[in-house]
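Extended Data, record Colicin V production protein
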Amino acid sequence: MEQISQVKGEATELAGNINLAPSWDLFIFLFFAVCVGYSLLLGKAKISGIMLSTYVALAIANESGNFLYNYFNKSSYGASTSIFTFKTVLFGLIILFFTLKNENIKMGEVTRGLMGTIMSVVYGFFSAGLILTSVASFMSDIQRAAIYKQSNLAAHMMQFRFIWLIIPIAFIVFFSFTKKETK
C-alpha cells in the first residue's frame, strides 16, 4: 500500500512539471500540419490556386487595408476594431472569395502518384508559411515583439519572411516543368 501512494506522489509530481498550456510554437506547428493535411486532400491544382489567392489577398490587404480601415471607421459602418483585425479579416475574405470564385480553374494538370503527393505537401507547407507571415506582417511592431518573446520559431519565420514570399513562386515554376504522368 505504501508503494502505491509513493507511485501516486511521483506521478502527481511528474504531471505537475508538464506544461500543456497553448503556445505560439504549438499554434504554428498545428497550422502547418492542418495546411499540409488540407493540401493532401485538395491536391496540387487547388492548393496552387489558394496560394495564388493568398498573394492577391496579401497585396490588396497591404496596399488598401489602411485606406479601407480609415474609410469604414469614419463612416457609420465603423466598429471599434484594430487595424490588425481589419486587415486579417480582409485578407481571409479575399482568399475565400478568390478560392471559391476560381474553383473551376486548374493550375495545370493534376499529377498523380508519389510526385503529386510530394507537390501537394510542399505547396501546403509553403502556403502555411506564406499565410502566417502575411498575417504577422499586419501586426504592429509592438505586437510582433511580444510574440517573438514567447516564440523563437515565430521570430525566425518573420526574420526570413522574404523566403516565405519567394519560395512558393519558385516551387510553382519548378514543378511546372516537371514531367506530367500520363493517365
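Summary. The first helix runs from residue 2 to 17.
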